[in-house]
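Treating backbone geometry as a discrete language has practical consequences that deserve illustration. The sequence in question and its structure tokens are set out directly beneath this paragraph.
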Amino acid sequence: MSKNGLNYAYYPGCAAKQIQKEADWSARAISEKMGIKLHDMPKATCCGAGNLQEHDPAAGLAVCARIFSQAEEMGMDICTICNTCLQTFTFANERLKNEPELLEKINEVLAKAGVRPYMGTIDVKHLIWVMVDDLGVEEVKKHVQKPLNGLKVAPFYGCHALRPHEVFNGRGGQAPQYLDTIIGALGGESVDYNGKDKCCGFHTMLVQEDTFLKMSGGHSLEAKREGAEIMVSPCTLCDMALGAYQARSEKFLGQKIELPEMSISQLVGTAFGLDHKKLGFNRLHQNPENVFKSRGVA
């Protein structure tokens, strides 16, 4: 449970504020339904997402510590819906909590910027962790108004929330369970396939497009061959790679995929009976309506 009940300092990440807005909309909608209170962090900046950490590690840690300090001042753990933000924050928080001298140096940087010191007291969680670990699966089930009736759903975890599992306190690893657990709670059937815990290829998108299209399209094809009717991810960047680029993957691979992909929050919202417009269905690149209708999830 969060240190402040079901109250969290909400960090959607940059992608959810711009190109993947539907992930943010649906996350807010289902959280409100479940009584999970997401408190905005208006002063928060980009987490740096790897690029800053590689170019200037000290600056990357300072940026993360500044955001942690804001959440700490709010008295809340951070909740995010972006795997890359989750990884960036978790790695930084691990170091800051376990290296006192480093934390002291970073706090000196924060002081020069007029920011309160970070005391190392907050945790960083993904919304799916909050749903399963903090709220509880039985509570999630109570809000299901339109069960998925055995809909075959392919979970795509995204690598940035899995490895190394020690850093994620055992929540990751080679046999992740959170998406599968949530899919089952909604009345769906989780499809097992080799790519569920692999990389979507997003970070090769601009430098090796052929590799990216082979990876993202290949995962979707494999999931469909295993019987998937829809694919979900807890990561905004994976959403983009698997959904927005599916048509380009089809062209590159010379095969039709035609597998609707959406954020896990949108699937949860559908089972909760929330309005599809509120969940941002109009922004999806593959229309899932017929899939849901075929299972009686109107």
